[in-house]
């Protein structure tokens, strides 16, 4: 099954990294946008100046969280989706989300 990669619109911009992670975790464009619109929790993102939004997914027996990291742009006005990932289990509230090392390195390169 191949997922359609999202395309940039007037308000939403997608990085190559976010598109790659969406394919890896099998997130659709609508799923990521739903996390943005109705998050169960919002926190400060790992990268400087970013926001991480989360929705609870999975079942009671196998709980997971779907996370999206984004930044609000001033010019052009809109939102840039930086990354999306699935976390197995539940993260404590207020704690920064745990991101694998390879993903952190990619994010640092992308934001520089």
Automatic annotation (TrEMBL):
Domain of life, per lineage: Bacteria
Protein name as it appears in the record: DUF4258 domain-containing protein
Organism: Candidatus Nealsonbacteria bacterium CG10_big_fil_rev_8_21_14_0_10_37_25
């Amino acid at each position: 099954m191949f997922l359609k990669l999202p395309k940039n619109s007037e308000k939403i911009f997608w990085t190559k990294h976010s598109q790659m992670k969406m394919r890896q975790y099998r997130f659709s464009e609508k799923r990521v946008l739903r996390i943005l619109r109705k998050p169960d929790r919002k926190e400060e993102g790992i990268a400087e100046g970013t926001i991480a939004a989360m929705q609870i997914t999975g079942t009671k027996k196998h709980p997971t969280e779907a996370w999206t990291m984004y930044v609000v742009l001033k010019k052009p006005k809109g939102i840039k989706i930086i990354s999306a990932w699935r976390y197995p289990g539940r993260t404590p509230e207020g704690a920064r989300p745990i991101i694998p090392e390879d993903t952190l390195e990619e994010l640092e390169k992308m934001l520089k």
